[in-house]
């Protein structure tokens, strides 16, 4: 029992360590979404958005091509977005966020 637990712990550590060393674009994007978008938008695969009229982020790339989102994010999505603060994301942040959105498919 203890041995199994130890082995699992070890495997877990091995899996986690590289992630800690260098967060992937997906992980940075998720952290960014959690910090900036999760107040209103659901950012995972299953939840409802905290703010009912904000579409879950997982639906965005089904409604818009990723390139269109990229452009909108770069210009600051303020249009048609009354309750949402205008964001201007850096190219790096956009890349990270879109990488994360792609994992939600
Ligand atoms: C204060 C609440 C709030 C926050 C924070 C917020 N949003 Fe929104 N967002 C909304 C609402 C409300 C809508 C729906 C607006 C509508 O349909 O008119 C929306 C819609 C969107 C849309 C779709 C626009 C469209 O035309 O369909 C995108 C893309 C979007 N948000 C991206 C983001 C991203 C990325 C973040 C984080 C960087 C974010 N939002 C943070 C409230 C918010």
Descriptive report:
It is a single chain. This protein is an all-alpha fold. It has one domain (23-103): Cytochrome c-like domain (Cytochrome Bc1 Complex, Chain D, domain 2, Orthogonal Bundle), CATH 1.10.760.10. Helix content is 56%, strand content 0%. It is built from 5 helices and no strands. The longest helix has 20 residues, at 2-21. The mean pLDDT is 81. Heme C binds at residues 36-37, 39-41, 51, 53-55, 60, 77, 80-81, 83-85, 87. Residues 36-37, 39-41, 51, 53-55, 60, 77, 80-81, 83-85, 87 line the site of heme C (HEC).
Key features?
5 helices; single chain; 56% helix; 0% strand; 105 residues; Cytochrome Bc1 Complex, Chain D, domain 2; mainly alpha
Record the SSE blueprint:
Blueprint: H1 2-21, H2 25-36, H3 60-63, H4 66-75, H5 91-103
Helix pairs in contact: 2-5, 4-5
The structure holds heme C.
Q: CATH architecture, please?
A: Orthogonal Bundle
Outline the biggest β-sheet: none
Counted up, domains total: 1
How far apart are the first and last residues' alpha carbons, in Å?
Answer: 37 Å
At the first level of CATH, the class is Mainly Alpha
Round the Cα radius of gyration to an integer and report it: 17 Å
Residue share in β-strands: under 5%
Instruction: List the bound ligands.
Output: heme C
User: What general outline do the C-alpha atoms trace?
Assistant: elongated
CATH topology: Cytochrome Bc1 Complex, Chain D, domain 2
Give the % helix: 55-70%
- Determine the number of helices (DSSP H or I, runs of at least 4 residues): 5
Calculate the mean pLDDT score and round it: 81
Strand-and-helix sequence, N→C?
HHHHH
CATH superfamily: Cytochrome c-like domain
Class computed from helices, strands and strand pairing = mainly alpha
List unreliable stretches of 5+ residues: none
